[in-house]
Amino acid sequence: MEFPHHQIFQVAYLVNDLRASVQEWDALFGAGPFVITEHHQTDTFDYRGTQHEADVSYAFGYLGDMMIQFIVQHDDTPSIYRDMYEAGETGFHHVGLLCEDVRAEVDRLGAAGFECATFLHADGVDAAYVDTRAVNGGFTEYHGTPPRIIQAFTTWREAHARRQPGDSPFMER
């Protein structure tokens, strides 16, 4: 198996309260500011061969060059989050890597014996979650790199670099 040189750009956690998690990470680490996306919807969605799409909300912010993502699942729909945690449980969920060809990465890991648990397309971006729990204790997300998404991530990272003590841990999109 050939190994591409993708860097982990994101670490994600399942939480019970986005705003409380943002405030805790702000106080403890100085992370943020965070952008919140409530009740995210996709254009196409596949969870283990079904179209079960859970009701989830996200918060995205930076700590240094690492994106931190918090996820809340609002329902009990089968999902990559419920694969790891029951309702009310929290913890590390996945690492994220940016790549040009999400499908090729899914195929590469599939050939190595890792199952793609979710493939989705939303806002012009492909993303996939491969079940790599046996290796890293969580999923591995491959996220596409359209220029507007990379620009959004850059804007969020730059907002973190400019933060001053006392600034809000929240940022409008």
Summarize this entry quickly.
24% of the residues lie in helices and 33% in strands. It is of the alpha+beta class and 173 residues long.
Please give a handful of descriptors for the protein shown.
173 residues; nine-stranded mixed β-sheet; 9 strands; alpha+beta; 2,3-Dihydroxybiphenyl 1,2-Dioxygenase, domain 1
In terms of topology, how is this protein built?
Blueprint: E1 8-14, H1 18-29, E2 35-37, E3 44-47, E4 56-63, E5 66-73, E6 91-98, H2 102-111, E7 116-122, E8 125-131, H3 133-136, E9 139-143, H4 147-162
Parallel strand pairs: 1-5, 6-9
Antiparallel strand pairs: 1-6, 2-4, 3-7, 4-5, 7-8, 8-9
Corresponding CATH superfamily: 2,3-Dihydroxybiphenyl 1,2-Dioxygenase, domain 1
Oligomer: single chain
Separation of termini? Answer: 40 Å
Q: Give the radius of gyration.
A: 16 Å
Beta-strand content: 25-35%
Strand order of the largest sheet: 2-4-5-1-6-9-8-7-3
Order of helices and strands: EHEEEEEHEEHEH
CATH architecture: Roll
Mean pLDDT: 95
Which blocks of ≥5 consecutive residues have pLDDT under 50?
none
Percentage of residues in helical conformation: 10-25%
CATH class: Alpha Beta
**Strand count:** 9
Would you kindly provide a written description of the structure presented here, covering whatever features stand out?
The chain is an alpha+beta fold. It has one domain: 2,3-Dihydroxybiphenyl 1,2-Dioxygenase, domain 1 (Roll). Helices cover 24% and strands 33% of the residues. The protein has four helices and nine strands; from the N terminus they run βαβββββαββαβα. It has helices at 18-29, 102-111, 133-136, 147-162; strands at residues 8-14, 35-37, 44-47, 56-63, 66-73, 91-98, 116-122, 125-131, 139-143. Strands 2-4-5-1-6-9-8-7-3 form a nine-stranded mixed beta sheet, with helices on both faces. It is globular. The relative contact order is 0.23. The mean pLDDT is 95.
